[in-house]
Amino acid sequence: MSSKIYVGNLPYSVTDTSLKSNFAEFGGVTSAKVMMDRDTGESKGFGFVEMASPEAAQSAISALNGVSVEGRRIVVSLARPREERAAPGAYSATGYRASNRPDVGYGNGGFGGGRY
């Protein structure tokens, strides 16, 4: 079992240090990171906490999932691995696609190809 936790629906006032201190009572916290918007520098409302052990992670999930923080019910669960995805218009093992939309391109009707 993993010890990385996803924390969602966070109030925008939560910082890395406050997130770390809230999870520290359930065991050792290796890292705590609130995800920030690149352009504005404001919180995106979710973050990740890595606990020292899977047991500490499970106890934190059990205790904190659904708890109200500043009027928002936070979601606490095991973090899933990041899914690999190709950029639009990129070459992949299945071949090149100019778009991820199946209705755009040649052969699907009319001048220009798309269904409009």
TrEMBL record:
Keywords: Repeat, RNA-binding. This is RNA-binding protein. PANTHER family: HETEROGENEOUS NUCLEAR RIBONUCLEOPROTEIN 87F-RELATED. Residues 3-81 form the RRM domain. GO terms for molecular function: mRNA binding. The keyword Endoplasmic reticulum does not apply. It comes from Roseateles puraquae. GO terms for biological process: negative regulation of gene expression; positive regulation of signal transduction. It comes from the Bacteria. GO terms for cellular component: cytoplasm. InterPro entries: Nucleotide-bd_a/b_plait_sf (IPR012677), RBD_domain_sf (IPR035979), RRM2_NsCP33-like (IPR048289), RRM_dom (IPR000504), SLIRP/GR-RBP-like (IPR052462).
